[in-house]
Amino acid sequence: MKRFFYSSMTISFLVLIVTGGLRFLIPFNLNLSRLHIVSGIILSLLVLIHLAGKAKTLRRIIAPKHGRKAWLASALTLALCIGVGLAAWFGTPGVSHLMGLSYESRNHASIFRAQDNVASDHQSRWLRTSKLTSTGASIDIELLWNCPAEHHAVAIWAETQSGTIIETLYLSGSLSFSDEHPWESKRQRRGQILPIWRHRYTSVCGIAPTGATDLISQPTINHQWLLDHHLNKTSKPFTLFVEINIAGDKHSSLIYASRIDPESPNAYTLLNLIGHSHGSLKDGEINYEISQLPARINQVERILVKTIWK
Questions:
Q1: CA–CA separation, 280 and 272 (whole Å)
Q2: CA dihedral 157, 162, 164, 169 (to 10 degrees)
């Protein structure tokens, strides 16, 4: 029994170290994070069981009976642990330098994370993204597939009438955490998978689809990359875009869009297929010639948007 117990502790500890190191060095991966958390829980339980079995020995170590000086080692250990914890919490120079070596710090500009007031969920037959503002305004996008769709690449974003991106509401899976992604048996950049969205996103992240730095793009007082201020009844209309790349078909992505107008009496809007990304890798311009598109457009049953203005 002891052999099994200590073997389990050792394996859990090694898994915790390896997964922690990988999380530090590579893009976010849900399976890796799940394994890291589970191994941490298992190790914690095993350590607690071990400490419970050694309670008497532990009490003798923590509370020795040989005078005040005997407390020194325990006090120093506790102080050291507290000091390390505070240094990590507040990001002191040594810790901040170490964290600067992590994947997330080195690639923070290309990592996409939705705003806190945006929630998304998806199953094999549907995808839903919702944004709720502090004023109670909201926008809800529902994408229904005609057949199960597990690995399609999808980006959802809003633009002003002049074509400036306002906010990205959704980006599929690991595309959010790395500018390169396994796609159709090889690694490709996001600009090759979802070129229309990626060119628009350059103005937000400051990095071109090729990986070059774009120092011109940045938020201004009048434009903060947030949709919140556009969801009131006095705001101007904006355009909602959805770009979809069907996994495995080796064709360009499809572009759906519609104008969202606060003066419209109908809260619901259907997005229409307006083009595709063939020939868009360099400039990110939409190709509006849709007469020759293959039957794969039937993958999408509908994209319905509900907007509540405040």
A1: 19
A2: -20
User: Dihedral, CA atoms, 139, 228, 241, 283, nearest 10 degrees?
Assistant: -170
Structure tokens at 264: 């419209």
The total of other beta-carbon atoms located within 10 Å of residue 133's CB is: 19
| Tokens (6 digits) for 113 | 């994370």
Phi, psi of 161 (to 5 degrees): -65, -25
What are the structure tokens assigned to 125, written together? Answer: 């037959």
Tokens (6 digits) for 139: 């926008």
| Residue pLDDT, tens place only, 132-182 | 998 899 999 999 998 887 788 999 999 998 888 899 999 998 788 888 888
Among 159, 197, 200, 158, CA closest to 175: 197
Residues 6+ apart with CB under 8 A from 255: 196, 241, 242, 243, 273, 274, 275, 276, 277, 286
Write the pLDDT tens digit of every residue in 188-201: 888 899 999 999 98
Rounded Cα–Cα distance for residues 114 and 36 (Å): 24
CA distance 196 to 243: 7
Give residue-wise pLDDT tens across range 228-279. Answer: 888 988 888 999 999 999 887 778 899 999 999 998 889 999 999 999 998 8
DSSP state of 176: G
Contact 106, 27 (CB under 8 A): no
Token pair 């705001």 is at which residue? 235
Q: Could you give the CA distance from residue 220 to residue 212 in angstroms, rounded to a whole number?
A: 22
Rounded-to-integer distance, Cα 180 and Cα 176, Å = 10
How many angstroms separate the CA atoms of 28 and 105, rounded? 12
* pLDDT value at 280 more than 50: yes
